[in-house]
Each structure stands twice: as C-alpha cells, then as structure tokens.
Amino acid sequence: MTRQAQRVALxxxxxxxxxAAVCRTLAEDxxxxxxxxxxxxxxxxxxxxxxxxxxxxxxVDVSDEGSVRRLYDEVELSLGKVxxxxxxxxxxxxxxxxxxxxxxxxxxxxxxxxxxVNARGTFLCCREYAQRIGPAPIDGRVxxxxxxxxxxxxxxxxxxxxxxxxxxxxxxxxxxxxLAPKRVTVNSVAPGLIDAPMLRLSLxxxxxxxAASTIPLGxxxxxxxxxxxxxxxxxxxxxxxxxxxxxxNGGYRMQ
Length: 255
Prior knowledge:
By secondary structure, the protein is α/β, with parallel strands linked by helices.
C-alpha cells in the first residue's frame, strides 16, 4: 500500500479492538493518527505504540457535543486539519449473561444510551468534520462503522443496537451526497462476527466453532479484516467510491 504522508486521521473508539487495528493500519500507510477514547491514558498508550511518529491520544465523549468540538480543536492545534475521519466508537448493552433484551423489555435508558453513543456520536463527529471543511475541495475521507446486525436484524445484538447502526447507514448516504462537491467520500463498513471485545460480550470462545460454521468462509473475522476495508476506502484507489457499504462478514450476508 502506498504511503499517504501528511494526512491526519481521527479515529474514534481508537483504543478498542477494531479501532486499534484501524489506527495501526493507517499509521503503517503513513497517516498521522489522532487516537481517541473516553480513557485518555489508554488512547495515549496506543498512540505511542503505533508505527511512525507524531501520533497522539485524545479523550472524548462522542455523545457530547462540546466534547467533540473540543476534540477537533485540540487535534487541529497539535496535529493539523483532519482529512480522514473513521468512527469506530460504539456500545452494545446486553444482560449480564450476554443475552439481548427484546423490545418489550428494553428500558428507555438502554435505548437512549445506545443511540447517544452509536448514532448521535457518529453524527456529531461527522457534522464537526463537515463544518470545518473550507471552501476548497479537500479530497477527504469519512468512514463510518455500521454492523451486519443493521442489515439482518441481528441475532446477538439488541434492537436498540440494531436501530442505532441502521441510522448510521442512512447518515452515511446523506452525508456522501452533501460532501461530494468537496471531493470528500463518505462510506460505511459493516462488520459481521469479528473476534473483538464487543463480540465477546455475547459469544463464549467455546462457541467459536459453532459460530464459524454459519459463515461461508468458515471462520470468525479479525479486527485486521475490518481495518483492511477501511484502508482501501481511505486510500486514493477509492476516490470514486462514495455512499456505499462494504460488508466484512466472510459471506455471512450475501446479496
């Protein structure tokens, strides 16, 4: 992959399983990474371990408008203007035994928290990115993270999570149309069963073989599989692709 120098990538949820893989992959390609997480220490530690130099960790609550605005201020001051945004921050609330709440038993609090982080958080980060674009075209990239759950209705995921990830798919298309005149592409990646901390909330390692048997490629995905799709969408090779969703699920959901 061609190195992409002098581009600043802001990755939300950067210290998580998929987020960390995205940070490492884009750093390998020469981008300067703003690693963000609610835990500043964790974000800073990851930034220090990334390939290359100049990366920094930042704290943010993506569900809070003021926190997102301050994040962009800090990143622009220390690293420069953000040209690439990848929204990996997300939350999945389940019962203590890892099972999902059905709609009839979903509390308003569960619904609101899930929407606040997943849907509102993605919106706030994307809106701030869009508001800071200058008058000239920038050849920017926005990559949102949805989920196969939004496309299938989910099996392990709650309806509040499914709804929040479906909202991201619609937001991605709307923003892609709006930012096209600025030469900013906006696409989504929808992971399937990925061996990352969020999947482990509902899947015991003892059940991996059974879960893998439902996937045509015969294995769970890895965070690096998802990061590979992000890498492509961020690269110059994807400059004519916008408003689409790339499924990274091993064939779990075939059209």
